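Reminder: ligand-aware prediction takes two inputs, not one.
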Amino acid sequence: MEPRDRSSYSVYQAGRGIEEVARELGRDPESFVVLSSNENALGASPAAVDAIRDHAAGVNRYPKSSQVDLVEAIAESWDLASEQVWLAPGGDGALDYLHRAMLDPGDDVLVPRPGFAYYAMSARYHHGDVATYSLSKADEFAQTADVVLDAYDGERVVFVISPHSPVGSEMPTSEVERLAEETDDETLVVVDEAYAEFSESESKRTLLGEREDVAILRTFSKAYGLAGLRLGYMMTPESWADVYARVNTPFSVNELACRAGLAALSDDEFVTETVETARWARDYLHEHLDAPTFESGGNFVLVDVSGAAPSGEGEENAGSAVADATQRRGVIVRDCSSFGLPDCIRITTGTREETERAVEVVNRVLAEVPEA
Ligand SMILES: *Cc1c(COP(=O)(O)O)cnc(C)c1O
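Here is what comes back for the chain with pyridoxal-5'-phosphate:
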């Protein structure tokens, strides 16, 4: 027996975790600084951790009231109707729900390159095809409506990431609005705001009031520190938001995630400290790394290490050579080859101590790797 044709499918390549790397190198996981997956440097919201503990014994029940309460709290925080909040297991899960709701077989989605792998993966699972638009390194990955419209060909869903991971650039609200305006009526523009808390710019939620063709993705994985719980949501236009009830997996967000999410939403102190730390670390990375960096609105900075040529033979590129070398010195950063940026690494902002250590190690590696 064979499952269906998977020739267009790919496997998601996550940033490497601490246990995996430590095991491979025969070292103590505690001795590593992990700055490869844009996780929260300060841990999880303490209020969320308390909530998980308090409700642990309640997991014999299906999450009914906790889901309703969380959706209402999120809706209230954005001044939306509850139907407009599509709760899901992670932002990734929300992408699946969106594609279930939007795509007919053969519909296309338009995604950025570099970009986030799961848009295309999810679209393909839902019988969609994938086209790409390019953000240009030479242009500092500038995000304008024209950059997208140049490649646009009537796709059903168009993805924008703002702030963009791994590059850090943002698309101004006015440009998102123009993009929505100039694409077809039946094209939905999805703005992925996984990192919006770290940015100085306003959320594109402002566009939801007037438009039926913009949706916004948010997650609890980054600023709230709940990546391990899998919790995210899509904000959708009022006119068709009720479709969620027909496409979602029942109880897909678990009881403890809902309780933790509710607690985290009111943990302003934690989010404020998280954002302040990330902004400090961003500045520190820009200022002290001995390689060109790109402006970032997120909790990470993209670094151009093309000056560092791989030392060995084989197909290794500069990004993976530098990432391998920093890893041997106990600092795990993201090699950006899988994003289509083989000459770059992405460094997640850490605590002050972690960030200083990362800079020291990356600079030492850059100084050692022979010039091209
Ligand atoms: C982290 C991230 C998400 C959401 O991830 P989840 O953990 O599934 O919520 C979405 N888009 C981008 C670009 C991300 O980096």
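The mean pLDDT is 94. The chain has two domains: 18-37+269-368, 46-266. We will return to this case in the review session.
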